[in-house]
Structures
1.
Amino acid sequence: MDTIMKKLPPRPIDVKKRILHWLITIVTIGLVIWSCTGIDFGGIKETAGQIAGAIFSGIFHPDWSYVYNGSGEDLVSQLWETVCIAFLGTFISAIISLPFAFWAANTKHKHWYVSRTGKIVLAIIRSFPEIVLALMFIKAVGPGSAAGVMALGFHSVGMLAKLFSEAIENLDDGPNEAVTAVGGSKTNIIMFSTLPNLMPALISNTLYRFDVSIRSASILGLVGAGGIGYPLIIALQYRQWNRVGIILLGIIIMVIVIDWISGWIRKKLV
Amino acid sequence: MSSTEQEKLLALPKKKFKILNLLWVIIFIAGLFISTNETKTDLGALFANFGQFADIFLQMLHPDWSYMATVIPLLLETIKMAILGTVIGSAVAFIYSLLIARNIVKNKAITGILRVIMNIIRTIPDLLLGAIFVAIVGIGPVAGVLALAICTFGIVVKLFYEAIETIDPGPIEALTAVGANKLQIIVFAVLPQVITYFISYCLYAFEINVRASTVLGYIGAGGIGLYLQQTLQVFDYPKTGTIIIVIIIVVVLIDYVSSKSREALMQ
């Protein structure tokens, strides 16, 4: 038997591609090195490990008296407020998103600049910092969860309308034409073809956004717009590490439960 | 055909009525009422005070361009934070995803526990992480980088391990058959199939990080958010407007570049 192994043919070399890959690699490495410069890593407090340990022990030794005491300032009622902010905020943004979505959707019977401008507007709304929006609403309606609801409601439009418009773009024209072919009016088209086809995507996207809103709602409290963020920042400022731990645990449980519920509903929808 | 039959044909089709749908609607409306009550949201108050809201907005629309020079250094710091956070987070996520992918690590107990840890880490929002890290390591960009790294980790690990689990098992079997060890299997069978996905997810996480890093400074975690907080505190809205415009331009620009390169990568 022939024991000499056959040599594999050499790999084809694409010089252009190789140069491009090396260039990208070098630029990336350069960027990373550049970012390491100028950031002061020496500023870590000596107590860092101790504080982290205290927060961790707070997660495992919760301050039960804080979990529920019926005063309205306890963990459960703050979490409930957070959920309510997210729910109402998502609802408001879903309603505002609909017209924006139809504006930004790139469909056939539309000038190109219409959907392009819509997309740019949505990108700007998306990039407007949520916290600043919350502060503006606090100026208008006073501190509290109402400001949080409105900030969330307006900020979410940027992302939600983008998702909606993608759903509209993916709509099949067939059902519309079928309804038109049998003599349906414009309302008939919307009632019997557009809405039924669009609804599952709308609900599923809104539920997805609700998951994100829960996380945002727990942040908004940091600036005084209601929800669980406020007691957290207070506890951090007063160095009540046990309480920080239990609040974190509460947020984690809340987010997991909400994710689980909305995932379950979305699965049923599909 | 009689006229009644014709009428029947002309009538629009009736939708089937489902009791479950009604239940959902009732739950939904109840939720609306409860949450409106709980948050004391009153849109009337918003419209009544809309003048104030619009006033801030109008002041922001007249940005103070001379402030630009002060903003640029912190803007660069913000981008640096985002890059570092992405690099650290995705490097950890890379190894972690290999450990929790069930087609690489066969031990269900290990992957299960590691996945629970991952899911817990994923739940905490970026700004809260920032606030906690500020308390732990002190005010400065280090807290921001750490918060961003953990966020990146959460995003990339989830997407990447799912990508690993959906690869073609053929190459793995082939390499196992010729007696390759675990590392060789990963390098020669798994990575060539998923590395483009990994890069794409890192870029995606980078987009999110740029967005998040701009506000991290608000709570003292470094970056341009610091000026955001300072100007808002003294009600200097024209300067706030400058910062916000700069943020929007940078975010939109980076979003565009990154999403275009992701598209190019996936081709």
2.
Amino acid sequence: MRRVTDDDHVFKALADPTRRHLLDRLFEQDGRTLTELESELEMTRFGVMKHLRVLEDAGLVVTRRQGREKHHFLNPVPIRLIHDRWIDKYAERQVSALSELKTRLEGRR
Amino acid sequence: MTTTVVQTTQVYQVFIKASAEQIWDAITRPEWTARYFHGAHITVTPDHYDSRSADGDVWGDSAVEVFDPPRKLVHGWRSLYDPEMASEDESRVTWEIDEDENGVCLLTVTHDRLEGAPKTAAGVSGAGWTGVISNLKTLLETGEPMH
């Protein structure tokens, strides 16, 4: 079994334009094979494999073998968890600061 | 906005710090599902999957194909909460729970056989399953759902 994914793996996996491109391609059409993904990139098959492995280790891509072919599926759950953990937290502070400002300004009237 | 092709298989995965039995209970008992699954009260028995709103409206009513606690559950899926989706073909949901020696489980949810249910496929993808599964993780690990 893959090791427990932590945020570091996800951030590192996302910190590369080729890997983000691969995720976007899977978002448009999920379950693609290496050959399909490779055909859109100017990169060697091994290069694409290496990037897919990083995405898989971060839990962002899940593979399924169907017959002789390996299909790659986008798993958006780790991104959602980062959203819940990081984005929500900071956005909430801005919202509460704004509502505090609103209360203060309106209180002056 | 990029055009997206209808997906016939969707796979979601998450690690949860909970026992396989806890996760099994959380996906098969209404007192748990109501807290993270859009308020749905879901009851799964060895042969039947039943999902209802808090008011008792039927949201899901399908046969169970595999009932192997606490490892694997396979059941039919029809989105009866939406009239258009309800008229589509039945699809299939598979829950697999793999526990490691450290008390951490890898939960894999596969929604497939979506060929005859494009609206359902679009409805459950993206925020749908992703939200449910991340909520389930948060609920089991912290005792409170996120949303």
